[in-house]
Structures are given as structure tokens and as C-alpha cells.
Design a protein that fits this description.
The protein is α/β, with parallel strands linked by helices. Strand 14, helix 9 and strand 15 form a beta-alpha-beta unit.
Length: 618
């Protein structure tokens, strides 16, 4: 992790601890030993790949790790898992450092095209689009928030012509993965399960402001609810993919336990550049990949499975000749199958910068953490304290704007609570790409203020974007247009989110901290009255924050639907031996943080493969 903000942060903490607690060396050595042990339990990078495997899985991310695990349950199947990134480390799994990982080599560091309608407050009007380039993929970069979504999300998938994807079908796949470690939910056998690979727990630390957020929601008439139970409307502390105060990525959950399976080979730091497809038989028979500037070819007896995510899977398909014919011809790619690859790009976009001040030192501040050696002492000894907060986020609310009093509503708005102001210049400018002008106007000289942020987020966006090729070079980053606010109705949801956040700040739970909305005005929004609907819409267009939920670019649907890329069994239409199993297949994005649904897709897709090759899934 050299040359990253993560290293600086951790080294600063270690220096502070060594100054105040010289005897802590033994605990630090124990923590380092834990990290070495974790890295030793990750499946090794095979030195030499076989000429041929039964299945090749591209991408060791949220879905790919699941697929590799489930396919290697069949001992006669040889599986190659190819990942472009490096090994996961214990530093990456300290929950609080989540957003700092974006500075490192485990992030693809994609950017959107310069826009005239979103990210106007970012450098060159471009959003940063973080995507995981590491064993575990984006489950190593995300904030570990685990939500499944609403039953209506999946019933809608089925209604769009995808049999087997209704909630009654997918629910058991959510359950299959889960190892719930939240005591009050362990006996709810209808909605939770113990013993799966994926541990779900509450973070072992909770700030007073997070408590105020949930209590304030109850004051407003909402329930403190299990957001992964039968209904979602309400407030909740995070259910997180964490175990013992550390990140529980899909690599740690699904690959580490099977590291000794002889039929699994893993190739790391290896970027797939092309799916090999016979143009006459229209069958995928292998892949090309690059490692250390050398090109390799490996063959698949049965199938190639793309699990590279909603940005990289469509890119690989298109450079391989599968995509919109006109677009592929324009960049010099020979067309094998004309499909709408790259369209239907969706995301949960949030309004950034909504900040509230408080009169007490109860918020998360990096400088205060660095000055207090007890913080690291507590984490390395017990995996508790401030460093166990997932990326600074602690709590969440799902709200139905149209039916605010319906406990079984269909959430269209999320409020994501962050227990600090995140006004550090490096964080805002490097992480989110905020321009100097906007930073100085909104946040400069406010670093000392204690406070919190709430990100209002659109759960069921109407806007759509697109992923395209820059050229036919597979090593070039793709062209990404998120299309935020192309449907202006999405902005209305964010305005309602601001109103709810302000209402929360006026509850007794928050007023005891003398909470006030920080009246900072973006330079590009000075023509609008602060706190008006028009002002907040303007701020949303300037500070458009992705929540890392890119999806939909290889849409699942019936063959008769001209917008479909894969069928309901995730097979690429018109091509034999090729599937896509990741978030890109989502027809519509669920009202959820998408890591959980993507893991479910990995489970569901793995069973499809087993069934289609005559194996009865467990």
C-alpha cells in the first residue's frame, strides 16, 4: 500500500501509539501476525496455468468469488479464477480506512466523461468512479453496508420476463450465504441464517451521533427496523459485512475457506483482454489475458463466466465483438453479436455536502484520531473503537416519499449517516475530486468544526447512463457517462431527502447537541436562495456522489426484448458457453446497497450453471 493515504494514516497512528505506549510493541506484532496469517490463507497465485479448464471466471469480486467457490464444490470441475488486481491485506480490512483505499492501487480509478448536468463541482466536471481492482473486488473498497432490497425489486425482475428471479426465488439465495451475528436477529429463521460463508454483524462501535440519528428517526414516527427483514421502511444501524471488527470481503468469506481445493486455480495481477469466440460456431472457448506485459491464452471446455462488474464486463464483451454494432464498428472492433451492451447503466447517486454542526466533540475527526494513541491501541488489541466504523458511516434510513406512513412502503429515498464532516482537503479533493473553487467556498477554514453529514440518496433512479469503448485497445479505460439527472424527477427525491435530514436535526435527539445546518453555498448556485428546492437541485448537480452501485449494463431479459444482453439464466444471447454473473445483469437496480444483491446473483448464477451441466445443486 506504499504511496497511499492509507499508509500515511496508519503510520501516523503507529507513531502516536509508540510515543505514548512503548509497551504496545507486542500488540502491534500480534496484529501484524494476524495480517500475515490472513494473507497466507488467501488462495495462492498459481505460477503456471493449465492449457484448459472446465470454467474460467473473470473477476474475483463480489460475484466472482462466490461463483469460484460454488463451482469448485464439484470436484471433477477445474476452475480458473482470473483477477486483475493484487492480494487483499489486513490494512484494507480496517473499516475506517475504506475511503482512503481509493487513493491506492486497488482502485481502477475510473472517471466519468466531463458533464454539463452532474458533477459540476468536480475537477473538469468529472465524477470519480471507484471500482475494486483486488482480490474481493469492490467488496474491499465499499463501506460494508449489507442490504438486500425490497421484495418488489425482484418481483419486478420476474415480471419483466425473468422467471426464477422473483423474491420467493432469490430469498433463499440471500439466506444461503448468510452467517448472521446480530443477537436479536439470530432467532428470526424466516429472514436470517447462521453458518453461511458471509458474516453479517453490527460494527462493534457506535458514536453518540449515530444513536441520535436512529433515535431521531423514531421521534419522527419511524421504526428502528431490521432493514433485511420483511419490510424496509425505517431507521437502522448498519448491518455490515464484518467479522470481529474487520471487513469481511467476498474473498475472505468465499475464497479463504477453500484455499486447499485442488480444482481451483487463481491468477492474480492478470487482466483479461478478450473472450475468445469462434465466429462460425458462435461459442466462447477461452480468454486472453495480460500479465507483466506478456499475453497468455487459456481455454475453457465448458464456459467462460464474466464477473468483472458493471464497468469491466461490458468493456470485455465489446472488445470481444459483442455489443452495439454501430459503436463497435466506429472503434474498429469486428462485430460477432449485435447486442445493447453498455446501455442501461444505473447507480444510486447522492447529494453530497449536506453538513450539520454540533457543539460537542462527539464526531469522527481524523486529526483527533491521530492525536489519540488509545484509538489504535483499542483497535489492535480488541478490534473496537473509532477504527471499527465502516468508512465513517454508521446508520441508514429507508423512506417511501409517496407513502410516508406505510410501514410496508417501497423505499425510494435513503438517508446515509456519516459521523463526521469529512472536511479534510485531501479527502474531498482526492477522494471525491472536488474542485479548489468549491472546496474553498464550502469547506475551507471549517476543518475544526464538529458535526455530521447525511447523504440523501435516490434508491429507485429513473435516469440511465452508458458505458462505451474509448477505442479497441482493451487496456484503455472505458468511456463512462453515468447519466445522472437525465430524468429530472430524480432531483425531487433528493430535495425531499434534504427536508427529512433537516427535520431530523430538529428532533430532541439532535437538539441536545445544538445541531444546525451548515449554510455553505456552492459558487455555481449563488443565483438560488439557500435552502430552496432550486438550490438543493443545483447542489446535487454540483456535488453528485456515487455510492459505488454501478449496475445494469448487461441487462437480463427475454430474448424477444431488444434491450436484453443475457437471458434469465445469465447466458449471453446468441453466444454459447458465455455468461455474465455480476451487478451488470440487473434489469433495474434494487432499493439496496448492491453488494448483497450481487452476492445473491453469484449464488443464483452458480446454481444455473450446475443445473445446465447436470449437477443437482445443494
Amino acid at each position: 500500500m506504499a504511496r497511499t493515504g492509507v499508509c500515511f494514516f496508519i503510520l501516523s497512528l503507529i507513531a502516536a501509539v509508540n510515543t505514548a505506549f512503548p509497551p504496545l510493541t507486542e500488540s502491534m506484532l500480534s496484529f501484524m501476525s494476524e495480517g500475515i496469517n490472513m494473507m497466507n490463507t488467501e488462495p495462492k497465485d498459481v505460477k503456471t496455468v493449465l492449457r484448459e479448464y472446465d470454467f474460467i471466471v473473470v473477476g474475483a469480486g463480489s460475484a466472482g468469488c462466490v461463483v469460484a467457490n460454488r463451482l469448485t464444490e464439484v470436484p471433477d470441475w477445474k476452475v480458473l479464477l482470473i483477477e486483475a488486481g493484487r492480494e487483499e491485506s489486513i490494512i484494507m480490512d480496517i473499516p475506517l480506512v475504506a475511503n482512503m483505499l481509493q487513493f491506492s492501487d486497488v482502485n481502477w480509478k475510473y472517471k466519468t466523461v466531463p458533464s454539463k448536468s452532474y458533477c459540476l463541482g468536480m475537477v473538469n466536471h468529472q465524477c470519480n468512479i471507484p471500482r475494486g481492482k483486488v482480490m474481493g473486488g469492490s467488496s474491499v473498497l465499499n463501506y460494508m453496508i449489507f442490504t438486500r432490497g425490497n421484495y418488489r425489486d425482484y418481483d419486478a425482475w420476474e415480471a419483466q420476463g425473468n422467471p426464477g428471479w422473483g423474491y420467493r426465488d432469490v430469498h433463499r439465495y440471500f439466506m444461503k450465504s448468510e452467517d448472521i451475528q446480530i443477537p436479536e436477529m439470530m432467532d428470526d429463521v424466516e429472514n436470517h441464517q447462521r453458518g453461511g460463508y458471509l458474516t453479517i454483524s453490527y460494527p462493534p462501535f457506535r458514536s453518540p451521533l449515530a444513536t441520535a440519528f436512529v433515535e431521531g428517526g423514531v421521534e419522527l414516527g419511524y421504526k428502528n427496523t431490521d432493514i433485511n427483514g420483511p419490510t424496509q421502511v425505517g431507521f437502522s444501524y448498519h448491518q455490515a459485512t464484518m467479522r470481529n471488527g474487520t471487513r469481511w470481503s467476498t474473498s475472505r468469506a468465499f475464497l479463504h475457506p477453500i484455499r486447499d481445493r485442488k480444482n481451483l486455480h487463481v491468477k492474480k495481477r492478470s487482466q483479461v483482454t478478450k473472450v475468445l469466440i469462434d465466429p462460425f460456431t458462435r461459442r466462447a472457448y477461452g480468454v486472453e489475458f495480460v500479465k507483466n506485459r506478456r499475453r497468455y491464452t487459456v481455454l475453457a471446455r465448458k464456459e467462460v463466466i464474466l464477473s468483472a462488474g458493471a464497468i469491466n464486463s461490458p468493456q470485455i464483451l465489446m472488445v470481444s465483438g459483442i455489443g452495439p454494432a454501430d459503436h463497435l464498428k466506429s472503434v474498429g472492433v469486428k462485430v460477432i453479436q449485435d447486442l445493447p451492451v453498455g446501455y442501461n447503466l444505473q447507480d444510486h447517486v447522492a447529494l453530497g455536502g449536506l453538513t450539520f454542526t454540533v457543539n460537542d466533540t462527539v464526531s469522527l475527526k481524523v486529526d483527533r484520531i491521530l492525536e489519540d494513541p488509545n484509538v489504535l491501541n483499542n483497535y489492535v488489541r480488541h478490534h473496537q473503537g473509532w477504527l471499527a466504523i465502516p468508512g465513517g458511516t454508521e446508520a441508514i434510513a429507508f423512506l417511501d416519499i409517496n407513502k410516508p406512513n406505510d410501514p410496508n412502503g417501497y423505499p425510494d429515498l435513503e438517508l446515509l449517516f456519516i459521523g463526521g464532516t469529512l472536511t479534510a482537503e485531501r479527502t474531498l479533493q482526492k477522494n471525491f475530486g472536488i474542485s479548489n473553487e468549491v472546496f474553498k467556498a464550502m469547506f475551507k477554514n471549517k476543518e475544526k468544526a464538529d458535526g455530521y453529514m447525511i447523504f440523501p440518496m435516490i434508491l429507485r433512479p429513473k435516469s440511465r447512463g452508458r458505458v462505451m469503448l474509448r477505442d479497441k485497445n482493451p487496456l484503455q479505460s472505458p468511456v463512462i457517462d453515468m447519466g445522472y439527472f437525465s430524468n429530472p424527477a430524480d432531483l425531487d427525491i433528493l430535495v425531499e431527502g434534504v427536508r427529512k435530514a433537516v427535520d431530523l436535526s430538529k428532533t430532541k435527539a439532535f437538539k441536545k447537541y445544538d445541531t444546525h445546518l451548515m449554510p455553505t453555498i456552492i459558487p455555481g448556485c449563488k443565483n438560488f436562495k439557500f435552502n430552496s428546492a432550486e438550490y438543493w437541485k443545483c447542489q446535487a448537480r454540483h456535488l453528485s456522489f456515487t455510492i459505488y452501485h454501478q449496475s445494469g449494463t448487461c441487462k437480463m431479459g427475454p430474448v424477444t426484448d431488444k434491450t436484453s444482453v443475457v437471458d434469465s439464466r445469465l447466458r449471453v444471447i446468441g453466444i454459447k458457453g458465455l455468461r455474465v454473473i455480476d451487478a451488470s445483469i440487473m434489469p433495474t437496480i434494487p432499493a439496496a446497497h448492491t453488494n448483497g444483491p450481487t452476492i445473491m446473483i453469484g449464488e443464483r448464477g452458480s446454481d444455473f450453471i450446475k443445473q445446465d451441466w447436470g449437477v443437482i445443486p445443494k
